[in-house]
Amino acid sequence: MRNIIFLITKFHTLIVFVVLEIFALSFVFKTNNYQGIKYANTSNFIAANVVNLSNEIINFINSSKNNKILTEENAKLRAQLTYQNNYSEDTLLPKKSDTYTYSYIPAKVINNTINNNNNFITINKGTLDGIKNGYGVVSSKGVVGIIVNTTEHYALIMSAISTKSNISVRHKNTNAIGSLYWNGNNPFELNIDNFSKTLPIKIKDTIVTAGFSSIFPPNLPVATVKKISPNPTSSFYICEVILTNSIPSLTDVYVVVNKNIEEIKKLNEPITINE
Amino acid sequence: MNKEFIYINTIRTVFFLILQIFLFNILPIGIFYIMVYPAAILLFPNATRKVLIVIIAFSCGFILDWFSNGNGLHTASLTFLGYSRSYILEYIRPISGWTKIDVPNIYQQGFKWVATYTTIAIIIHHSVYFFLESFSAINVLFTLKKMVLSSIMSIAIILLINLLFLKNNKL
Predict the structure, then answer these.
(1) Number of folded domains in chain B?
(2) Helices A45-61, B50-68: crossing angle, 10 deg rounding
(3) Contact criterion met (CB < 8 Å) for A114 and B30
(4) Is residue B71 in a domain?
(5) Distance, in angstroms, between B23 CA and closest chain A CA?
(6) N or C end of chain A, less CB within 10 A?
(7) What range does the domain containing B98 cover?
(8) pTM for this one?
(9) Domain coordinates of chain A in residue numbers?
C-alpha cells in the first residue's frame, strides 16, 4: 500500500497528463468522421453568441460589398422571373419540375474557419427552422458545403474547402462527371478527379453540380477551371479549379431543403428480404 | 501561491486566449495557421507545480476547441506542451540554474533565451497539432510544409507580442 502511495506521489504529473491526453485524443479520433462531430464546436449556445459578436463587426465593415452581391442576385432572379412569365404558356419549353422539389432557407454566417484541414461554418438557423443533418448549403454564387451538426438555433456546415468533403460535379459543356475535393493547400484552389483525358476541357470552363446526390439541385455553378493538364500515370486529367463563391468571405447562405430526400434515402437503403 | 501570482497569470492567459479566438482564428490566411496561445502556458513562473501546468493547459485547449471547431486538436497538443514544458526548461536552463522566483520571460531572461525557448516549444506544439490533424502518411510533405510555415509565423508573432506588451513589466 505504501508503495502504491509512493508511486502516485512520485508520478502524479505523468498520471494526470496521460489521463487528460487520452481524453483529448479520444475526441480527435472519435470525430475523425464528419458525421460524428458532437464535441466542442461553435454550434453550441454560448460559443455561438460570443463568436456572433465579433462576426457582426466584420459584417458591418463589409456591408457595402455584401449589399452589392445581394443586389446582383436580385437582378438575376428578376431576369428569370420575367423569362418565366413570358413563356409560361408555351408548352414546348420543358417545365422545370425538378427545381420545385427544392426550397431554400436563408441564413447568416456567424463563424467561419479556413485555417484547418477540415473547415466549418456556423449559421444562425437550426432544427427549429427545419434544418437537419446532411442538408446542402449554397450561396448566391455557388456551393458552400453540407450540414454536419445542428442544435435548436444553430447549425454547423462542413465547407467545401475541407479534405473530407467530396461533392459530385459535372463539366457543363461535355456532361462529364467528376468529384470535387480539396487537397488542403490553398483555400482558393480545389481539385477535380475522374475527368477523362479524351474530353475537350479548357481553361475557364464552368463546372456545375451533378444533381445526383439529392443534396444540391442540379446545374448550380460550382467552379471554373483554372489549370488543366493530363495525368501521365492515369487516364484522367489533373484539374485545378477556383470556386465561384469565395467561402472565406461569406455572409449570407441558403440551406437547400429537398422535399423528397427521405423518399430518395429509402430507395437507396439495402433491400432486406423478409422470411 | 499568493494572490498576485493568480491575478497576473489569469490576466495573461485570458489575454492570449482572447487574442487567439478573436484575431488569429478569423484572419483569412488559409495556408498557415497562426497559434499564439501556447505562449500563455510558456510564460508561467518556473516554480509553478507541473500538475497545475498540465491541468491549465488542458483547460485552455478545451476552451479553444470550443470556440474554433478544433475537435480536440488544441486540447491534445496544448496538454502535451504543458507536460513537456518542464523538460524544455530543464534542458535549456541558465548556467546558474533556476531559482524559485524565476519567470521564463523577456523581462528576466532576455530576448535571446526566450527566443530559443519559444522556438523549441512551438515546434513541439505545432508538430503534435498538424500531425494529429492529418493523421496519415500520405500527405507528410504537405503537412510538414504547413507545419514549418505556421511555426515560423507563430514564433515571430509570439516574440513580437513579448517585445511589445510583456517586456517592461512582470506580466
Answers:
(1) 1
(2) 60
(3) yes
(4) yes
(5) 9
(6) C
(7) 3-165
(8) 0.71
(9) 39-275
